């Protein structure tokens, strides 16, 4: 959505102290300069750490335990709808009519909901859970579902599990049954966090939080295989805190945030193998999330620990990002979604 030629974004935040955020914030970007401006908050919600928009409305949740009241929230022109989440510390969601899936980091399970024709969540219909662990005794003593993605060209749901070093693919049918069809092992201790697919879903790129590596997986027939692995920051010690990953619309460039080093790492992926281009300072601390504008001209970074959001102009030909010098203040920003 644009208003007076501005680009608008929702901002997910953590609201628990010491943060003073109260829910989902809004910012706008001036496409003539990259200047960022804080707008009125959209809605109050505790720890809305991930957001997803569709033509029907906005989905989020409270990233808290089930005991504290973890719940899914849907906001539309008809108002807000809530459903409880049978899991702890939800961290990611995705939709594909008539379904919505939520990854629960704390309990490791995935909650699947049925949506009506207006996108309102009706009821939970599946609870997906696979036991597992990894060698990192601080972070991998149990499964930790960190991302859910419905594939566009098949009836499959992909689940990225940081705790057990697995990417799982579930096949679903019109009877709302989800069946595990592949459990792809990632390098031990890598801690896969998020992934992005190319347009035809023949290849995907996985950012691994703990090993701070980029892993390429390719579809071979009906299954997926690991084909490449490279460091996000070549020659730099891992801080076990890689975070967000974004693919440019033309599928030439890939960007990943490295929270411990406060960097955005850029790759050229136009060839057979990812080629590291550069690492850019995020002009803040702990870049939890970032996004590319729909027109491809801007990259916007949410720095969680320094409570600021920073804009960069993006060269669509070379993939280079250049700081505009503009930023705005939002306490504990952790998710960015263009409206």
Automatic annotation (TrEMBL):
Gene3D superfamilies: YVTN repeat-like/Quinoprotein amine dehydrogenase
GO molecular function: hydrolase activity
Hydrolase in keyword set: yes
Keywords from the named record: Carbohydrate metabolism, Glucose metabolism, Hydrolase
Highest taxon of source: Bacteria
EC number(s) from the headed UniProt entry: 3.1.1.-
Enzyme class label: hydrolase
UniProt cross-references to InterPro entries, sorted A to Z: Cycloisomerase_2, Haem_d1_sf, Lactonase_7-beta_prop, WD40/YVTN_repeat-like_dom_sf
Family statement drawn from the similarity comment of this UniProt entry: Belongs to the cycloisomerase 2 family.
PANTHER family registered for this protein in UniProt: 6-PHOSPHOGLUCONOLACTONASE, 6-PHOSPHOGLUCONOLACTONASE-RELATED
Name under which the protein is recorded: Lactonase family protein
Phylogenetic lineage: Bacteria, Pseudomonadati, Pseudomonadota, Gammaproteobacteria, Vibrionales
